[in-house]
Amino acid sequence: MEEIQVDNAEEAFRVAIERGSDSGCLGRQCLAVDRLDHGLQVSEDCLAVTHSVSGNSISEASIQSLLPLGMNCGIGYYEITIHYSHAHCGIVVIGLAHQGYPNNKQPGARKYSCGYRSDDGRKAHNNGDSIPYSDSYTAGDIVGCGYCKRTKQVWFTKNGKHLGPACTFPTQVVIDHLYPTIGIEHSSISVNFDHSTTAWSPSEAISEERQFILKDVRNVELGAHDPTPELVASYLLHSGYKKTFESFKSMNPLQSDSLLRNATSKREPKGGQESGSEGDDVKVNEVLSSKLKERNEVVQSIIDGNIEAAMEAAEKHFPSVKETIWPILISQLIIEETRKGNLKKAIAVASDPLGNTSSGPHTLVSKAMGLLAYKDPKTSPLSSLLEQSQRRRTAGSVNAVILSDLKFYPESVIESLLKHIIAIPLVAKKCYFPIAPE
Amino acid sequence: LQFLYFIGCPPSPPHQPLNIMYSDDKLRQVTHKVQLSDYLRKMQEVEIDKESMDQLVMNYLEVEGFEEAAKHMREESGMKVDTPGKSLGERVDVRNAIQSGDIEEARRRLDKSYPGVAGDSYLQFVLKQQQLIEIIRTGDSEAALNFARDEIATIEGLSQECLTELESSLLLLVLPPTNQDATLDEGRRLATASTINSAILKSCDLDPVPQVRQYLRLLKWLQGNIKKNISIPPVTDSVKPPFGSLT
């Protein structure tokens, strides 16, 4: 399961739907080598295994993967390719089992496992009894095993063909993680966890499940009060979109100005919630009237690239935050001067002591200085700093600092919302769930 | 805030020693506890681009039909739009009419541009009820009662809920005025306008739900799912950042 990269809100939504709160492990999926039966030999990349014991003695052996079966929208799938299987006593059983399944039993022989046998094409589930399922398979075949979390159903495939549902795990037993488990005797196989190269593609099943999940999400009840107008209003205030906010407010009698205040202000209401609509209006209007205009002055100048004007305005209107925002502004100024080609000026700006913290130049300043090292900054790895998006980022940081100083939350609720949505799958991914016997 | 302690994440998962016999009670559900500070740290590491959020808010304004606000938003946020100045359609005028109290005008426009919506009996009721309240507010109780009798009660197929709502609207005739009336009226107009707006969108085969609301639902869904496996302590206030549980 790879590290999740999320660039924007749409990505965040998609990732959250696919991963949900499926906890699991970060790391490369492969076979586990630390519990090997003596007859098993695993390849170096841990994706192939061979079983051989001298003589024809019947010795059951199985191997599990290192990580739980990876899920996408609640669908997990993997395949194995049979390279060799002894004509008389070669047996391969592909299946799934809980972690720590005994390595001397085939999947399906014990509880909470299932398996599809190569010799007679029968399936086994939870106990040793096997019942007819499908064709047998042998060397040269590619068999796969899939699992759907919603229906708790397991199915198998052979050479790209879906063989039908095989077994269902009982609902009262919740197994958080199923591990690909392969029983192997006198055979040699390799395993494939990469959906893009498997013979049978789970993408259709995944799309189907995605629709179920989306339907689930759409049906979630939001409760009596819909907080969306407040979310939008607080966002507009945070961003300083004055006209938009006023137009929006005129059409939306916000349920309670105190809710809006909560979304923006860290200040505690004086004397309880019912401090009177006057008090609420004053607080929201404060943001509107005096500071919003000044905040916009600073922010707009940064966005236009006119950092010196921004510095002037900031010094005039928000002197208390000068120390904090100066390094940010200086770094942006360096970028602007570099863009114009005034390298001497850029260096002069960089040497402004206000750009330093107690331990040397501020990280943003150093980063901006990095641009100076390149002859043609536009083609350097740091070229993204020259773009408009960097101006907006700087403007956003300065805005946040000012808001914080005014005792408002520096981050709008929408931003928090998105961060939560991104953080939950990330946090879930990082957790590993060993089932420890007592 | 209750939170329990983080059981360390081993770098490589150790498997169980050989030959362990498993029985049902061994396979219990494991709940992994996450410390709030870790979770918040993960949250702060994330950078959300402004364009995304501007886009979400813009989508909300457009879906709900706040055309003027959307226009300002476009300017003030510097968003790149493919078709600048594209009108959101007649439904904006319908909304504006309803929110200024002119229900007759709204109905006229609906009949003209969205006959499907105008024909629906529930929506007819919604509009007429709004009109009734406007009449009540003018103080003319006789006109109000006539209106209720002739226009509303005659709508075919009214459900029991609608009739109950009609009764409570008529109660306004006798209730003493309060100083919250203005806000409540505005709120009611907004609600009516939003209902009609959604209906119009649905009739045009467009998605009536703004994306932001889906994100809210997504968060609640994620939090519900994750409770099984991970206890992230709920941050209780739904509107204060860091935005937390919606329950």
Provide structural commentary:
The complex is a heterodimer of chains A (438) and B (247). Chain A is α+β, with helices and mostly antiparallel strands and 438 residues long. Chain A is built from 12 helices and 15 strands. The longest helix of chain A has 29 residues, at 276-304. Chain B has helices at 36-45, 50-64, 67-77, 90-99, 103-113, 115-119, 121-138, 141-152, 160-171, 181-203, 211-229, and strands at residues 32-33, 230-231. In chain B, helix 7 (121-138) packs parallel to helix 9. At the A-B interface, helix 1, helix 2, helix 3, helix 4 and helix 5 of A face helix 1, helix 2, helix 3, helix 10 and helix 11 of B.
Core attributes:
heterodimer, A: about 450 residues, alpha+beta, seven-stranded antiparallel β-sheet, six-stranded antiparallel β-sheet, 12 helices, about 40% helix, disordered C terminus, B: about 250 residues, mainly alpha, two-stranded parallel ribbon, 11 helices, about 60% helix, disordered N terminus
